[in-house]
Automatic annotation (TrEMBL):
L-glutamine binds at S51, G230, G232, L259, Q262, N300, G302, F303. The keyword Nucleotide-binding applies. SUPFAM superfamilies: Carbamoyl phosphate synthetase, small subunit N-terminal domain, Class I glutamine amidotransferase-like. Gene3D superfamilies: 3.40.50.880, Carbamoyl-phosphate synthase small subunit, N-terminal domain. This is Carbamoyl phosphate synthase small chain. The active site is at C258 (nucleophile), H344, E346. The gene is carA. Belongs to the CarA family.
């Protein structure tokens, strides 16, 4: 186990609020938009979810690292969060299957973090003030110097990030002789989405974010298209909106998750907005208004579709509603085999209430 000394560290929020804690992970400085996740487990999946690229994550569960790091339980090839804020940073771990400690993992991947923070107080503060940029440092403790560095960090509003996390080369998942072929537009796709496709006899080909519809069609001739989750502001992604419009014109089935949901809305002239805090956790109740049942869902998004515009649209209809705040969690395009949800039906370790959405997409391709 790597030697670990609890050096002092500082968390500074954009409004000038300061929290003092202890260094965790790599000694250094990091910046990003601060947000929080209410999940009680699954910290490794959170760390490696590309949708969190550019964000400093606050975990509301008191213990992080207690079951170690297992290399095959990741959602991408590396840590995607910009930094971590936690209360108890547990280097010693209990799970026999774990490959290494959280400290070794963070040092290998150069993640700067801070522990020994009253995360309950911090989360209550963010809930009241809204998401904002922040800086963590265990090498610079001068607040004025940190304020200067933080002032240079761009707002997440208007930021295009998907092209930075997308694959640079195409690759395939599943068996080539599978009955269904799906082209996946990788805007920050999670591995468990691809696992859910392969479990359903889908041969998927994953394409870089800026691949056009014509290129995917000519290369793969898929039965359907999937638009993935990912980070950043969807309204800054003209290239992806154009691709979604072309897919809709082709009449081929399409399924979108999270960012893919927002892009489907934008392709139908429905605007998106930056949310005050966003939804991030494993416990958000969503009602399927078509089937009249409730699902407990996993969520991770800081942008959403404008509710009034969805309801006023003659192009789409609402399929899912968040029961906490009545925000739109799912839509389908009228007269087309195209639908999307704002949450994550592939969620691992859970919940699994919404896995049926993958089956609905398969049915569209039959």
């Amino acid at each position: 186990m790597t030697n670990y000394t609890k050096l002092p560290a500082v968390l500074l929020l954009a409004d000038g609020t300061v929290f003092h804690g202890k260094a965790a992970g790599k000694i250094g400085t990091t910046t990003g938009e601060i947000c929080f996740n209410t999940g009680m487990t699954g910290y490794q999946e959170i760390f490696t979810d590309p949708s969190y690229f550019g964000q400093i994550m606050v975990t509301t569960n008191a213990h992080i690292g207690n079951y170690g790091i297992t290399h095959d339980e990741v959602e991408s090839e590396k840590i995607q969060i910009a930094g971590l804020v936690c209360k108890n940073y547990n280097i010693a771990y209990s799970r026999k299957q774990a490959d290494e400690s959280i400290q070794d993992y963070f040092q290998e991947q150069n993640l700067v973090s801070i522990s020994d923070i009253d995360t309950r107080q911090l989360v209550r503060y963010i809930r009241e003030k809204g998401a904002m940029n922040a800086i963590i440092s265990s090498e610079i403790l001068d607040i004025d110097e940190l304020k200067e560095k933080l002032a240079a960090v761009p707002s997440m509003d208007g930021l295009e990030l998907s092209s930075q996390v997308s694959t640079t080369e195409t690759y395939t998942v599943g068996e080539a002789d599978a009955p269904y072929r799906v082209a996946v537009l990788d805007l920050g796709v999670k591995k468990n989405i691809l696992r859910n496709f392969s479990k359903r006899n889908v041969f998927a080909k994953v394409y870089p974010a800026k691949t056009t519809f014509k290129e995917m069609e000519a290369d793969f001739e898929p039965n359907g298209y999937f638009i993935s989750n990912g980070p950043g502001d969807p309204s800054a992604m003209d290239y992806a909106i154009s691709t979604v419009k072309d897919i809709l014109s082709s009449e081929k089935p399409m399924f979108g998750i999270c960012l893919g949901h927002q892009l489907l809305a934008l392709a139908n002239d429905i605007p998106t907005k930056k949310m005050f805090n966003g939804h991030r956790g494993l416990n958000h109740p969503v009602k399927n208004v078509i089937k009249n049942h409730c699902e407990v869902t996993s969520q991770n998004h800081g942008f959403g579709v404008v509710q009034d515009a969805v309801r006023a649209s003659d192009k789409v209809e609402v399929t899912h509603i968040n029961l906490n705040d009545q925000s739109i969690e799912g839509i389908r395009v009228k007269g087309k085999n195209a639908f999307s949800v704002q949450y994550h039906p592939e969620s691992s370790p859970g919940p699994h209430d919404s896995r049926y959405l993958f089956d609905d997409f398969i049915d569209m391709m039959k």
